[in-house]
Amino acid sequence: MPINRRIGIIDIGSNSIRLVIYELFPTLAYRVIGEFKQSARLSQKIGDDNVLPTDDIDELIQILKQFHQICTAYEVTDMRAAATAAIRNASNSRQIIDLLRLQTGIHVELLSGEDEARVGFLGMMHALDISDGMLVDIGGGSTEVSVFRNRERLHSVSFPFGAVNTTRKFSNDGNFTDEQLRCIRQMVLQAVEGEPWIQQHPGLPLVGLGGTIRSLSKITQKKRKYSLPVTHNYSMSAEDMDEWMKLLPSLPADKRKKVDGLSKDRYDIIVPGLTILHTLFEAASASHYVISGAGLRDGLFQESYLSASPDYDTSLSLVERSVYNLLGLHSTAPAAHLHKVAEHALSLFDALREIQAFDERTRQLLHCAALLYRIGVAINYYQYAKHSFTLITQARLDGLSHRETLLVASIASFKTKSRVQQTVLQHKDILLESDVDLIVRLGTLLQLAIASDHSETQAVASLDALVDSAGKELQLSLQTKSDPSVEIREIAALSKDLKKSWNVKLTLHVNGDAGASSSRT
């Protein structure tokens, strides 16, 4: 039986050095099983002669040796390590790379600015369902900007300024005067003038990578008491960022440490990062901000170990790939059962579209919920519906908005209308009042679909659904291949719920190997 591979991805950034350990299954399902970070601030240590001093190279060597030991403990079989702006821009970069390989045994790729933009874009594209935008990755020593249309990168540039080296250039203590902020803005605008394409695509969302925008999203969520503390695919308005642009520079550096949600290792570099981000947003006339939790490290993994595999299915949508990845990690029910439930749920949905004109996206959400309804068994079989809600909302379903994620979780775990009302109230900052009716209706359809394969043996081979011309009766025709008595009983038990949620009467017609029959409920 094939064994899972463990893969280490090392990102030697200008602010921090990170190791992420992935577990990759033979099915290409994967998950992160470890993440380790050391704050090095290499961009601050580059001398006036652009040389990284020997002592700092030695410190970097010790960090990589420790990472190598961690990889050994995790039984990592494959590794990819890459260095970005700080080492790229050092005049002794080749010496650094050679020493790292000699002293640690780790071959480190030296990414060009173009490579960094390309790989970061790849990581983001496999995590966000967004067609057009401007991607901004603010690191410690550089800022990569890309414009993309129809999910294709049109232009990219790497600017030689980031949160760390800009802090070093303009401040000694993390405090900034209005004049220093003006100089940072001017630096960014001068860079933009050399890349006119940045201003030729107004109205696009600015998709942000890196610690600056993640930190800003976290403190925004804390301030708002946001009910789903997930930064990936979180949106922020221009007004949100304008407020932070007014507040954060006005706070002394030591007071910034106390801002709820702002990590202690970023309080002194957040203002330059914010200023770079804000200036690019205004220069590009962007519409709003979107945070991507996936970037360079994800792109390195994607490029080397997923996209490169001959088994990688490029036909799947982002949402489908994410759902199947989660199922690949947690085999909590027979695949045949889950696919049969999903098939029957969509048949019911298509028939009842005659009553309620739900769109194709809503159909996709029901499909996701049907496939994932049993995922909570990975935590515990008992009360698995509750655990399914938790897993779906916390596992990061790429391609879904926060509202859509909550809808899928609520439909998958649906039990009663009162519970749905509690969920909508708990997440009233994300869900709509009308979502109560949506969840109840789709949740009822999912429960019917689950009932149609209650024995998990596919006794009901197919289910045909039809609404009568008056829109008052749902006629179900079940084609069976074995005794469907369990399924018929479970479906009949849901007839009252169907009447309450859809205002239709349920009629069953059964045909199959067990003999033809007809029953009305």
From TrEMBL:
<dbReference type="InterPro" id="IPR003695">
    <property type="entry name" value="Ppx_GppA_N"/>
</dbReference>
<dbReference type="InterPro" id="IPR050273">
    <property type="entry name" value="GppA/Ppx_hydrolase"/>
</dbReference>
<dbReference type="InterPro" id="IPR048950">
    <property type="entry name" value="Ppx_GppA_C"/>
</dbReference>
<dbReference type="GO" id="GO:0006357">
    <property type="term" value="P:regulation of transcription by RNA polymerase II"/>
</dbReference>
<keyword id="KW-0378">Hydrolase</keyword>
<dbReference type="Pfam" id="PF02541">
    <property type="entry name" value="Ppx-GppA"/>
</dbReference>
<dbReference type="GO" id="GO:0016787">
    <property type="term" value="F:hydrolase activity"/>
</dbReference>
<dbReference type="InterPro" id="IPR043129">
    <property type="entry name" value="ATPase_NBD"/>
</dbReference>
<dbReference type="Pfam" id="PF21447">
    <property type="entry name" value="Ppx-GppA_III"/>
</dbReference>
<dbReference type="InterPro" id="IPR030673">
    <property type="entry name" value="PyroPPase_GppA_Ppx"/>
</dbReference>
<feature type="domain" description="Ppx/GppA phosphatase C-terminal">
    <location>
        <begin position="334"/>
        <end position="480"/>
    </location>
</feature>
<protein>
    <submittedName>
        <fullName>Phosphatase</fullName>
    </submittedName>
</protein>
<comment type="similarity">
    <text>Belongs to the GppA/Ppx family.</text>
</comment>
<feature type="domain" description="Ppx/GppA phosphatase N-terminal">
    <location>
        <begin position="31"/>
        <end position="306"/>
    </location>
</feature>
